[in-house]
Amino acid sequence: MMYKPLVLERDDSLRKRLFGETVMTHPAKMNLHQLCHYLTIFHVRGGFLLDPFGGSGTAMLAAGAQYGMYVATVDLAPHFVEMQRRAWDTFSRSFEMLDSDRCGDYLAIQGDSRALGATLASLDGYDEDTFADLIITSPPYADAFSGQSRGKSIVAAAACGTTGKSVVSRHSQFNQPNRYDANHNNIGNLKGTDYLQSMAQVWRECAHVLRHGGYLICVTRDCVRDQAIVPIGKQNHDLIVSAGLSFVRCDDWQIPQQSFWRILYSKKFPDAPTISTEQVWIFRKQVA
Ligand SMILES: C[S@@+](CC[C@H](N)C(=O)[O-])C[C@H]1O[C@@H](n2cnc3c(N)ncnc32)[C@H](O)[C@@H]1O
Fold it and tell me: Which CATH code, of 3.30.70.20, 3.40.720.10, 3.40.50.300, 3.40.50.150, is assigned to 6-143+196-284?
């Protein structure tokens, strides 16, 4: 049989309808349809879903909306945590649109996921070995577009969640940020071994708080740097396996269209490879 990747469907209108315009401004959101595809298979009703890189809160929103899980997200950037809280307010006002009995609850926490256990320890009833029934996340990636002009690098940096202290005013915080300071705790700012060491630390923490038999799902998209592919997905796969989780499978998802910046990049460097799929990596913590 011919191998066919799954195809990503645009989720903009659903996302806006349920959660409002502000979530659209996070530059590296997981796809809601893709997320629901995996939640349909892996959700644990009444269980805890954790996203250590919460961003706009896609995992929280999708799970809360449809799968009756309790959701905890962690993100380093306070304005993304605030974005999630606003989205939740919008979403909870539209509970009637859904089956409200089935909706879960959520908690958006500001913190550094390299110290996930310590961050979660302050929660009532926290038990480090059984906290998460399921982890779904998409990690930041290091310096993905370096080699481009400054303007493009800034937008790309935003795609890595590189927000630093960029917020210029209260009103502009949900618009495209226009200036970034270095924030050395933001993993999206790190390169080479610094990036890999930080990600290794996060995956070790995740492996620790995931209950035995629970799944970790990691969404990655490789990137092109200096006209060569950076295998973000495989690098993170290796780190997750080193953290002690067993690899289950990897699904390829066809990207429906290249981003504006990608198209510009291809015009400038026609021989550079293009990325046409993203990967969803599934791992499991062994049953005790
Ligand atoms: C690829 S985005 C996640 C997007 C999210 N899955 C969504 O659907 O909106 C990566 C996120 O990691 C966050 N981040 C970067 N370094 C972090 C750290 N050390 N601890 C926690 N979050 C961090 C960034 O602020 C960014 O929002």
Answer: 3.40.50.150
Does residue 162 sit in helix, strand or coil?
A: coil
Write down the pTM of the prediction: 0.84
User: How far apart are the C-alpha atoms of 84 and 73, rounded to whole Å?
Assistant: 9
State percent of the chain over pLDDT 70.
Answer: 80
Residue 118 carries which DSSP code? H
CB atoms within 10 A of CB 204: 17
In angstroms, rounded to a whole number, what is the distance separating the alpha carbons of residues 195 and 146? 15
Instruction: Give the count of alpha carbons within 13 A of 163, CB side only.
Output: 22
With a 6 Å cutoff on the Cβ, whether 58 touches ligand 1 is yes
Which residue has the least CA distance to atom 18 on ligand 1?
Answer: 112
Strands 223-225 and 210-220: unpaired
- How far, in Å, is the centroid of ligand 1 from the Cα of 139? 6
